[in-house]
Write a structure and sequence with these properties.
Structural class of chain C: alpha/beta
Strand content of chain C: 15-25%
CATH topology of the largest domain in chain C: Rossmann fold
Radius of gyration of chain A: 19 Å
Strand order of the largest sheet of chain A: 1-4
Distance between the termini of chain C: 39 Å
Strand order of the largest sheet of chain C: 9-10-11-3-12
Shape of chain A: globular
Shape of chain C: elongated
Number of domains of chain C: 3
Number of strands of chain C: 12
Chains: A mainly alpha (304), B mainly alpha (399), C alpha/beta (433)
Distance between the termini of chain A: 43 Å
Structural class of chain A: mainly alpha
Oligomer: heterotrimer
Largest sheet of chain C: 5 strands, parallel
Largest sheet of chain A: 2 strands, antiparallel
Helix content of chain A: over 70%
Order of helices and strands of chain A: HHHHEEEHHHEHHH
Number of helices of chain A: 10
Number of helices of chain C: 14
CATH superfamily of the largest domain in chain C: P-loop containing nucleotide triphosphate hydrolases
Largest interface: B-C, 71 and 87 residues
Helix content of chain C: 40-55%
Chain lengths: 304, 399, 433
């Protein structure tokens, strides 16, 4: 494996890490606000991908000419984002809100239940096998210094990087500050039914980013599958935990790291050891920092 | 399951209080002689009110019925004997998961992987295409020990993790095992599984009959073997619950901080609970492989199976032995018996040639299970048959 | 092996007079965003009772948490009998971490040398050529795999000469004897390549009539080179993965162990007991079981780990639990659940449970909170009896009362006047659980 192909693998890994990070942000935001792992988030993203497939198929013959296809992708990404965000808010309102005071196992199991329902819907929407994602860009690779980068991945980067940038700007602004402090108080005050609006906003934001990520993932993987939430969603969840669940920069970095490690291990060791490598890396990091890379350690006086 | 709460409190034995000035009044002094004034000393009072009859109320009728089923049902048994054996094996696996959830209060989302480990070890050691063919019993022992070792190793690596991170790591572990089972084809047989696994008594003969052939010809024997092992596991878990170790685990589950201040270390509880749970689930995996004759599709040891076990335990009530059995019965009974029956019946009603797609109930199976889980967690999170202890805990929490 | 049984025996022998039982040295405690306790110094001898008195938010509970191992201290040290309450690195820990590391290393090495093909080469291929499976043949095949030697495989009714990892087929023959002969020749060629430049024997094809001229076997040189380098590759990968995996496993084991070195359970085994401001009793266990679980734990702690069969120490533990229940006056309620006790009853239950671990130091956090004056009096009498047993007591209180009256000394804690102005998000974090 020479340097150029290694770099290429790294680039592919970073691209996939990009949308993994976007999905991981959804997990992280929800955990940071209400303290539960929203297992169904991956399946919400999967449904976003289904919607993207449907919308693209409605748009007529593809690929379109240069300005139009970028606008189309943007429009579809926004639609999917809105859809996934609303779906997330709905799930919270229906399923998680009555369980705010319950023991932590109850919302987890309910999340698994929601995940099942969404998977079943996805099963009927796009069928049991892989469904090809429409080709949005004309085929062709871009070359930069000998490293080939598929045009699709450029598109993914074009979606993912602005999303990250926008998110960081948002979080540093006033909205982000009040979100963080109110989130902490919300967690403490959750027994008295804290600020529900902010919780809903968090769910919406996480879902919206996931919807955008679903378009990027569809373009990168060229297929959508009803088990996407369980396959890629698990990697995104691992990325969120790796970066420190509850920390947004951690989710982004975690996503990039997981994507990179996965791509490199597929290239070097073969596809069968990719999952094991990612898991081993996660275990190693968690052994040294049980709360993740950027996570806050468990509050004093509380045992793990 | 304590009887103590229902017994009337008995008066103290040694009459009036001991005088306050006596310095050796049991605080730090050595233990006193056992007999005071010819009456039973208080320690035996404590031990007596703790000991309870191991087989009460529900076990005898239920297992008696189950044991009599092969002969009671006669021909009907041929149809349901196979699924019933599978349900019994899944009960054993769910009891393993119950040890983790019920005793430590932690979530383990990769339990089915230990079934895979146990089944794989059994298959490797008994399949005729491998040179090592040892008997069924030694292979089961190796399978159980191997699964226990894997469980212990996983617990050791995750000792300091919070419940959420632990859930994700165990989920990842289940995935890794499933992927490896599918990919290491020479060892595991790949997607078809490793087979043919010989039946339990192969090569042995008892009273003139070849046991292996007996197991193959008559499915009742395997059913009875599975039932016997289930009864054994329940007996062991019941004994564990009433023992000192079980009490320490229950204390740890309820309040790990307070348990730590009396010396119950999270390390030992987690290691021990995970190892025992993995061993029990590994046993179930060995049985499943022997029942099927092959280790089967690796997907049957993946997330779907782990979550099904989790649902069964949560449905019945975490920490409750009869609850787990009921949960498995409901979940898999629904899946294997009721839904196909409803589909067949509705097919008859509508006289459709073949119902397919969104019209059949079977294709909505996932959504139905999900809905059942959500409803259950919303309205009865302690499960259908909560154990007495968790009911007490829940009452206390809502004071 | 561990020093805990030894320490327990020290209770009977008098500890040296100049080492205090509890020695708190410049303890600094951080709570949330502020540092309420700075450089606290405290000495306790056996049977001495000391009270920390101060209003709320002065860090009293945090001090007890630090001493008891529930919270890490920001600075300073806590010593019990001159030893810090940290788990020592025993031989058991060493062997466990080493074994764990070796297991991880072996797994990594198996993955690196392609365990799939290893299994095929060692276990299955031998069966194909009807070799018996004995330890000798097992070792031979293992060695030949790691030397990346060629092997003979079977497919249907043909015999193939394959590379060690089964990936490449070099030739196919119909008869086993021919295949063996050809393999021998090919292996000689590969070994010659591997050992360096020199004469390479001719690779002649065995198939063919006696009349036809024997032709050279078309094995390209690059293949021979690759096969010759195979041994280095497998060995390099195997050893690297073994070493790397072992190091990783040992690192993980040490990290996990390191984080658990200082915990409340270890403090409890060294003789530190704790009661909380809100009594934390186990509501799932009965009153008797609450005390019994602590007594059993203490009874088992004295026994070496290989002698801990089920039931050891059970009667001694039950004796102790019964005696303690009598002392605190909960004997009649022993079969009830804690939910049925009054608040004072639960406090006494928690005290009985704390005493069941045979402590030498009792940390009591505001024990009189929520009790009437009469209940406080009787609790004070209980504490006095505890003190007479030689158990040191460190308790906290907001205002002086009957309990502080039995203490030898009182240490007042005041709010830090110049506490840092906490910014709003940090204050919110303090409020979070």
């Amino acid at each position: 494996m020479n340097l150029v192909s290694f770099l290429q693998q790294c680039l592919i890994g970073l691209t996939s890490g990009g949308f993994l990070g976007l999905i991981a942000i959804g997990y992280t935001l929800v955990y940071g606000t209400v303290g539960l792992i929203h297992f169904a988030h991956g399946d919400v993203v999967m449904l976003g991908g289904c919607l993207a497939v449907t919308l693209f198929s409605l748009a007529g013959p593809l690929p379109l000419d240069p300005p139009a296809n970028w606008l189309l992708v943007l429009a579809v990404a926004v639609c999917c984002g809105l859809f996934c965000g609303s779906l997330n808010v709905g799930i919270d309102r229906l399923v998680y809100r009555p369980l705010r005071q319950a023991s932590p196992l109850a919302p987890l199991v309910s999340a698994v239940g929601v995940s099942f329902i969404l998977m079943n819907i996805g099963l009927f929407w796009i069928g049991p096998t892989d469904r090809a994602f429409p080709e949005v860009l004309p085929a062709g690779d871009r070359l930069a210094g000998g490293v080939r980068l598929p045009a699709a991945d450029l598109l993914v980067l074009a979606i993912v990087l602005p999303a990250f940038g926008g998110l960081l700007v948002l979080l540093r602004s006033g909205f982000g500050r009040s979100l963080r402090s109110v989130a902490a108080v919300a967690r403490a005050a959750s027994r008295t039914g804290g600020p529900e609006r902010f919780i809903a906003a968090t769910f919406f934001l996480g879902g919206a980013l996931g919807g955008v990520a679903s378009v990027a993932a569809g373009i990168h993987n060229t297929t959508v599958n009803y088990q996407f939430g369980y396959q890629t969603g698990l990697y995104a969840l691992a990325a969120a935990v790796l970066g420190g669940i509850g920390s947004v920069p951690g989710a982004i970095i975690g996503g990039l790291v997981v994507g990179l490690v996965r791509a490199v291990s597929i290239a070097v060791l073969g596809p069968r050891w990719a999952a094991a490598t990612v898991l081993l890396m996660l275990v190693v990091v968690l052994a040294f920092r049980p709360a993740g890379l950027f996570g806050r350690p468990a509050a004093a006086g509380r045992l793990p | 399951m304590t009887e103590a709460a229902r017994q009337p409190a008995s008066p103290p034995v040694s009459g009036e209080r001991r005088p306050r000035s006596n310095p050796a009044a049991g605080l730090g002094g050595p233990s006193r002689s056992r007999v005071l004034d010819g009456r039973t000393p208080p320690s035996n009072q404590i031990l007596r009110h703790l000991a309870r009859s191991p087989w009460c109320r529900w076990e005898v009728p239920v297992f008696g019925l189950l044991a009599a089923a092969p002969w009671g049902l006669a021909d009907a048994f041929n149809g349901i004997g196979g699924p019933l054996t599978s349900v019994l094996i899944l009960c054993i696996a769910a009891l393993g998961l119950n040890v983790v959830i019920g005793f430590t209060g932690l979530l383990h989302l990769g339990m089915a992987a230990f079934m895979g480990v146990g089944g794989l070890l059994l298959a490797i050691l008994t399949v005729p295409t491998n040179p090592l063919e040892i008997g069924f019993l030694p292979a089961v022992c190796v399978g159980v020990c191997g699964a226990a070792a894997a469980g212990g190793l996983l617990a050791a690596a995750t000792l300091r993790l919070r419940a959420d991170s632990l859930a994700v790591v165990t989920l990842g572990f289940g995935e890794v095992v499933r992927v490896l089972l599918g990919n290491l084809e020479q060892i595991t047989g790949g997607m078809q599984g490793l087979g043919p696994v010989p039946p339990p008594g192969a090569g042995l003969s008892l009273a003139g009959t070849d046991l292996g052939r007996a197991f193959v010809i008559d499915p009742r024997w395997f059913y009875l073997l599975a039932l016997a092992l289930l009864i054994g596991v329940i007996a062991v878990l019941r004994r564990l619950e009433q023992s000192a170790v079980g009490r320490a685990w229950i204390a740890f589950r309820e309040d790990p901080v307070a348990a730590a201040t009396i010396g119950i270390s999270a390390t030992r509880v987690r290691l021990a609970a995970f190892t025992v749970a993995a061993a029990i689930t590994g046993l179930a995996g060995c049985l499943a492989a022997a029942n099927l004759g092959t280790t089967g599709d690796p997907h049957s040891y993946g997330f779907g199976r782990s979550v099904a076990l989790l649902c069964a335990v949560m449905l019945g009530g975490p920490g409750s032995l009869p609850g787990t059995l009921l949960g498995v019965a409901i979940l898999f009974g629904l899946d294997i018996v009721v839904i196909p029956a409803i589909d067949a019946w509705s097919q008859q009603l509508t006289a459709a040639e073949s119902a397919a797609g969104p019209l059949t109930l079977g294709s909505w199976r996932l959504a139905l299970v999900g809905m059942a889980l959500i409803v259950m967690m919303r309205f009865r999170p302690q499960g259908l048959l909560p154990s007495r202890r968790s009911a007490a805990e829940l009452r206390e929490k809502h004071r | 092996m561990s020093r805990w049984p030894a320490r327990r025996r020290q209770v009977v022998a008098a500890s040296p007079a100049d080492i205090p039982l509890l020695d708190v040295d410049r303890l600094t405690v951080r709570v949330g965003g502020s540092v309420p306790v700075r450089d606290l110094e405290l000495d306790l001898a056996e049977g001495e009772a000391v009270a920390l008195v101060g209003p709320g938010q002065t860090g009293k509970t945090a001090v007890l948490d630090c001493i008891g191992g529930l919270r890490p201290a920001r600075g300073g040290s806590v010593r019990l009998d001159g030893h810090r309450l940290k788990q020592s690195f025993t031989a058991a820990t060493f062997w466990l971490v080493l074994c764990g590391g070796l297991l991880v290393g072996l797994a990594a090495a198996a993955a690196a040398v392609d365990v799939d093909s290893l299994w095929l080469a060692v276990v299955k291929r031998g069966l194909a050529v009807d070799e018996p499976f004995t330890p000798a043949t097992f070792a031979t095949r293992l060695r030949s795999y790691f030397r990346a030697e060629l092997a003979i495989d079977r497919l249907a009714d043909h015999w193939r000469i394959v590379t060690a990892d089964g990936r490449e087929v070099l030739a196919v023959r119909r008869e086993l004897a021919e295949a063996r002969e050809l393999r021998h020749q090919l292996q000689a060629a590969v070994t010659a390549r591997r050992t360096g430049p020199g004469t390479v024997p001719d690779l002649t094809d065995l198939v063919g009539d006696a009349n036809e001229p024997r032709r050279l076997l078309p094995i390209p040189a690059v293949t021979l080179d690759r096969l010759a380098a195979g041994k280095q590759r497998i060995r390099f990968r195997g050893w690297t993965a073994l070493a790397g995996g072992a190091v990783l496993g040992i690192a993980i084991g040490m990290a996990v162990w390191q984080q658990g070195r200082r915990s409340a359970a270890i403090a409890a085994r060294s003789g530190v007991a704790r009661t909380f401001r809100q009594p934390r009793v186990f509501s799932a266990l009965t009153v008797a079981e609450n005390v019994l679980v602590a007594a059993e734990r203490a009874a088992v702690a004295d026994v070496a780990w290989w002698k801990r069969w089920p039931g050891v120490g059970a009667s001694a533990a039950a004796d102790r639990a019964a005696a303690l229940l009598q002392v605190v006056g909960l004997d009649e309620q022993r079969a009830l659940l804690p939910a049925d006790l009054s608040s004072a009853g639960r406090r006494r239950l928690e005290l009985a449970r704390a005493l069941a671990v045979r402590p030498r130091l009792l940390l009591a956090d505001e024990p009189e909170a929520g009790l009437t004056v009469a209940e406080q009096q009787s609790l004070a009498e209980l504490f006095e009896r505890v003190r007479q047993q030689g158990i040191a007591i460190l308790l906290t209180a907001t205002v002086p009362g009957p309990l502080t009256a039995i203490c030898d000394r009182t240490i007042p804690l005041a709010r830090q006047p110049e506490s840092r102005q906490a910014s709003p998000p940090r204050m919110a974090r303090m409020a979070a659980p």
